[in-house]
Amino acid sequence: MIVLGIILLIVGFIFSIPIIWTIGIVVLLIGVALMLLGMAGHAVGGRSHYY
């Protein structure tokens, strides 16, 4: 999800599409939150690791 968020941010910035930029930020933040929860040892959604 982090990689997808970064890709959406880049595409939104290059093509000046604000909705893609916003979606990229949201996806990136969700990916970081899941990564931090996984690193803390919490299983989120039945999975202990998100790749």
**Strand proportion:** under 5%
Based on CA inertia axes, which overall geometry fits?
elongated
First-residue to last-residue Cα separation? 8 Å
Q: How would you state the average pLDDT, rounded?
A: 85
Query: Radius of gyration over alpha carbons?
Result: 13 Å
Report the major sheet. Answer: none
The ordered H/E elements are HH
Discrete helix count: 2
Secondary structure: number of strands: 0
Helix content: 55-70%
**Structural class per helix/strand content?**
mainly alpha
pLDDT under 50 segments (min length 5)?
none
Task: Tell me what the structure shows.
- The protein is mainly alpha-helical and 51 residues long.
- The chain has two helices and no strands.
Q: What's this, in brief?
A:
The protein is mainly α and 51 residues long.
Architecture blueprint of SSEs:
Blueprint: H1 2-14, H2 18-39
Short key terms for the protein model shown above:
51 residues; mainly alpha; 2 helices; 0% strand
